[in-house]
Design a protein that fits this description.
Layout lengths: L1 H6 L5 H12 L5 H9 L14 E5 L5 E5 L27 H4 L23 E12 L9 E8 L4 E5 L12 E6 L10 E3 L29 H4 L6 H11 L34
Parallel strand pairs: 5-7
Antiparallel strand pairs: 1-2, 3-4, 3-6, 4-5, 6-7
Length: about 270
Amino acid sequence: QAHAAMASLWLRPAQALRRLSATIAPGFNGGALGHSFCKASPQPAPFLFRGPCMLQPKLFSSVALRISAAPPVLTGNGHLPQLARSFSTKNLRGRLFYKRRPKMIPKWSFNRRSKWLEGVGRRKGVCTKVYITSPKKPNSGCRKVAYVRLSNGRVVKTYIPGIGHNLQVHSVVMVRGGRRKDIVGCNYIAMRGKYDFLPVKNRKSSRSKYGVKRGNIEPKRKRFESVTTNVDRRLHFYRTGEEVGPEEKVPSRVHVVRNNPPFTYRHNKRKAKK
């Protein structure tokens, strides 16, 4: 049909243009298309659409038609596509354009809060300033803080944990990573019980956090002396057949865990069969 319309185009341009527009786009108004060609402005008009089939008016009485072998691509509503954009929306600057990261190289990630430890768990340092600061809202009180020059030359803000401390300028401490949320810029904690930093006094719970060692606690079995009664002697005679004197102690029993007990304990009762 398109070739037939093109063959009759040179004799009747307006009628052939209506047939051609009806063939390419059934929903397109061919009369309006011919009318627009008849009343074209003297300036050169742009392409009606871009694609495999393009119409470009040259004169008022004739139309130059160029058709390719592939059929035109229509939009969803059956109309011809709009003019193509002559620019790109892709960002031409930034890392995604000029400096891409290779996919096979693993990402190097670290904790940015404790980065001045430079990859180790803790570092030795010397206090350069010890002072007291106030926490952020809604907390209140006094927070003991110190500036510590680490062994790698970095000076970091370090929190002093626990009740009471003995730190002063030139004190040697061990610094580990750990953020204190209510102190601005404090991402390190001094370790108690290391170098010049003494542990907390009279600390009983959470001793490992404050460098307190376990005291010499005598177990109860050594603090209290066991007493042998006549009942113990009689039970020992029933078990072993040996008589024990009134001043002698009953030897302690050795509990043996047997892998194969003589009987099996059943915790649940069997249901009675109906």
